[in-house]
Design goal:
It contains 2 helices and 10 strands, in the order αββββαββββββ. It is α+β, with helices and mostly antiparallel strands. The protein is globular, with a radius of gyration of 17 Å. The protein starts with a helix and ends with a strand.
């Protein structure tokens, strides 16, 4: 606590500086592919943190955005972030994406309905998901974004309420298989 008191501003500046350099405009190499390893699908190589590796398309709300591996504020300014603690499309587990509720990102999530489609395009494959649930959760409800490996579930969330400016302690989560 004493360190934060004396060096808090410098620590914040260093973190902001690191975040500025965390985004890389290159995509993962074209030779990335899913392989079966001991009856489990895994990527042969993973993208670098901050690298765009996919795009997300949600036709219902006219979304076509880059997806970056990572979830810093700088990444979220440029598109959709992929939680580093979750699986990648095609691996068969929980995939967690997040984005701001701004006009150009996920402001129109309220127009989504069960049965709408979400498409993820990566350098190693194309994946489509169907929305089966939507929930408003508190930011502390981590059990609403479970990491599991039994079933591929895409969870995409944004801050709620949608018109909120500044910090919000609720999230609007879209679940798709």
């Amino acid at each position: 606590m004493l360190i934060k008191l004396f060096f808090g501003q410098q620590i914040n500046e260093v973190v902001l500086l690191i975040n500025k350099f965390a985004i890389v405009d290159k995509s993962i190499s074209d030779n990335t592919k899913i392989v079966i390893n001991e009856n489990r699908k895994v990527l042969e190589s993973y993208p670098e943190y901050g690298t765009q590796y996919a795009t997300i398309k949600i036709p219902k709300i006219d979304i076509n955005l880059p997806v970056y591996f990572g979830d810093t504020l700088e990444i979220l300014k440029n598109g959709v972030g992929h939680s580093s603690g979750s699986y990648f499309p095609g691996e068969g587990g929980s995939i967690i994406y997040m984005g701001h509720n701004s006009k150009k990102i996920f402001r129109n999530f309220s127009k989504l309905e069960i049965g709408d489609e979400i498409y993820i395009s990566t350098t190693y494959g194309e994946y489509s998901y169907i929305i089966y649930d939507m929930q408003i959760v508190n930011e502390t409800d981590v059990e609403k974004l479970p990491i599991q490996k039994e079933e591929e579930i895409l969870m995409v969330y944004t801050c709620y309420p949608f018109e909120n400016i500044g910090y919000a302690n609720q999230r609007y989560v879209v679940y798709a298989k």
